[in-house]
Every structure is written in C-alpha cells, then in structure tokens.
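Title: Request for sanity check on D-malate dehydrogenase [decarboxylating] prediction

Description:
We are preparing a figure and want to confirm that the structure record we downloaded matches what your pipeline produces today. Could someone re-run it with the sequence below and paste the raw structure tokens into this thread? We only need the token string, no images.
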Amino acid sequence: NRRYTIAVIPGDGIGKEVMPEGVRVLERAAALYGFTVEQRWHDFASCDYYARHGRMMPEDWKEQIGSPDAIFFGAVGWPETVPDHISLWGSLLQFRREYDQYVNLRPARLLPGVPSPLAGREPGSIDFWIVRENTEGEYSSVGGHMFAGTEREVVIQETVMTRFGVDRVLRYAFDLANRRPNRHLTSATKSNGIAITMPFWDQRVEAMAANYTDVRWDKYHIDILTAQFVLNPDRFDVVVASNLFGDILSDLGPACTGTIGVAPSGSINPDGTHPSLFEPVHGSAPDIAGKGIANPVGQIWSAAMMLEHLGETEAAKAIMAAIETVLKDPGLRTADLKGKAGTEECGKAIAEALR
Ligand code: NAD
Ligand code: IPM
Ligand code: MN
C-alpha cells in the first residue's frame, strides 16, 4: 500500500475555506486509486497563530513539520492585523528558502468551458508553464533602512543572483521545455534597464541553452512580455523568470485564463532534499473571506500537482478531468466565474465527479 504523509497548513482567510475542499478531493482520490494519505494539520503560518503567540510559527516549526512527503498549503496574510511583510517573511517565504524550494511551477491553462477575458480564445490555445525562481533574486533580505524619519532617509534592497541559483532554475525550465511537444522556452528579462543582474541572467540563459539544442528559445523584456501574455498567449510554452517577474506573470497568466481562483502552484525542491509545497497562486482574499464563495479549484488543482509530484499520475489526471467536468457546468462555478455555486458545492461536485 502506497502511503503518503502530508503536512496540511490552511493559513488565513479563504485558505481555511478552500483547504477542506482540497482535502476532500485528495481523500476521494486516495480511496479510488488505492493509496493512503496521512494528514498532519498545523495551525501555524497564520495570523491567528500570530495573535496568540506574537510570531507566525513556533521556533521549532521544522521539528513539528518533520519530514512529510509534501506540504499542502492554503494561503497566508491578514493585513488588517499583521503587516504583510511580517506575516509572509515569517511563514511562506521561510518554507521556500529553508526547504530550498527553488522552483515555483505555475501553469496557465485555459480549461474547457471557462470563459477567457481575452476575445476569441479557445480551450487549448493558452497552455504554458511559468517557472519562477523561488529563493533569491529581488526577494532578498540584503539592504538597509537608514536615517528613518529624517529628510535623509534611505532605503536599499539589493537583488541577489548567484550563478548556482540562476543555473539550477534555468536547468529545470529547459528540462521541462525539452519534454514538451513544442520545445519552446521564453526568458523574462529587463537587461536594458536593470543593467547588472539582468544581463547576467541573459548570459546564463544563453549558456544553458547550449546544452539544449532541441529547445527553441527567445527572450522578452518584462514590459512587453506582459503585453504579449494578453495579445498572443498562444506563443508561450515554458516561461522562465526571476522571482519578482515570475510572481507578476503568474497572476497575469491565470487571469488571462478566466480567474486567478483556479491557478495552482508547486514550490518545488527538485533535488528531494526537503519537502515540496503545493498551494494555490492566490492569497487569503480578505475581501471575500468568510462568505463561502471562494473558488476551490486552485486548491484542488494544487492537490493534483502534489499527487503528480508524488508519482500518483493516474490520480492526478483524474482530478484534472473532474475539475474540467465540473467547470463545464455554469451552475457549479463560483462567483469569480460569474456562477452562483459556493466553495463547498463546487468542491463536493469535483469530488463526486472523480472516477
Ligand atoms: P488575493 O489573491 O488574496 O486576492 C486578489 C483578488 O482575487 C481579490 O479580489 C480576491 O477576492 C480574488 N480571489 C483570490 N482568490 C480567489 C478565489 N479562490 N476565488 C475567488 N476570488 C479570489 O491577493 P491580495 O488581495 O493581494 O492579497 C491578500 C492577502 O493574501 C495579503 O495578505 C497577501 O500578502 C496575501 N497573499 C498570500 C499569498 C499566498 O499565501 N501564497 C498569495 C498572494 C497574496
Ligand atoms: C505568491 C505570493 C507571494 C509571493 C507573497 C504573498 C509573498 O504573491 O505566492 O505569488 O510574492 O511569492
Ligand atoms: Mn503572487
């Protein structure tokens, strides 16, 4: 019997509403496909935990999490009570760095039945992966804040790129492109304006490309790349980007496919030295939290990505098929897709559609 230990961390806001639906589908997939999921729920990495303990996670969070096969995460952040940089640097960004999850893998795929806000786009015409660097780059803690409150106040935050860090995410992206039918890779750059780190990024892309002669590759500056996402999304296959550029592109890509509410992601440690983490792209959505109307598909699709990562390919495919079946029915869509279904109704429908 295949058995997986999963750390389950719902977090804040709609994270707590979509997680039960993710878990419902996971359990159903396990029953149908003959594996066992042992869930270990944690209440930390949430602003509720912060309110009780004055910090986002216990000091021994690594011991408490142990060595699960994967981490299933909801969303974190509640800016009304904890400033975002405190809550995020104290939780999610710790996981990504401490667990060396250097790849953030995020699909943009137009699913059958889901209307794209872009005119004339059919299912299948948008289908690409964003590979985002996830441990360094613009998200750095190198910098300083001096002369606070005076007219001489200065803030500096450095971008950190290491050859090791850039090369490993590029290798992952080229490997992925090499396995796709179109074998095409696009690199997001800004080497015209950001004239030290970005030319270095370009140089490493070119060096890595030399190892992948079957992969066609190109690069766009990030400004025009965002325009191309909207104008010609069918152009893309694998898009590799630095931490910040990848963050921006991975909200824009899914928005072009109808809603960020369906988008999943994996913060992956490809070397297997630490657990990988699977979570929706979206945040805790304070504006709709508590109403039971959040779209659970991002969380459920993240479960599919997690199962794929664990080698349960058939179950992962079945979850995708169930998501597609349900989304084709306008009556089962949530409000972000102009439907009337609640989070639980949509989640239950997907669990029931599983075969
Ligand atoms: P958000 O993704 O939480 O919400 C943006 C908009 O999208 C909101 O209007 C929201 O209602 C809508 N939305 C998001 N997910 C949805 C879903 N599943 N169904 C329907 N509508 C959905 O981004 P934000 O408002 O910038 O951030 C809110 C908080 O979440 C902040 O604290 C932020 O730092 C945090 N955040 C966390 C993560 C994460 O945990 N990975 C990601 C992004 C933002
Ligand atoms: C994401 C989020 C995070 C990020 C925030 C909440 C720190 O936007 O997962 O995309 O920027 O990576
Ligand atoms: Mn983001």
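Thanks, this matches our download. The pocket of nicotinamide-adenine-dinucleotide (ligand 1) is lined by residues 14, 75-77, 79, 84, 88, 92, 260-261, 279, 282-288, 294-295, 298, 336 (CB under 6 Å).
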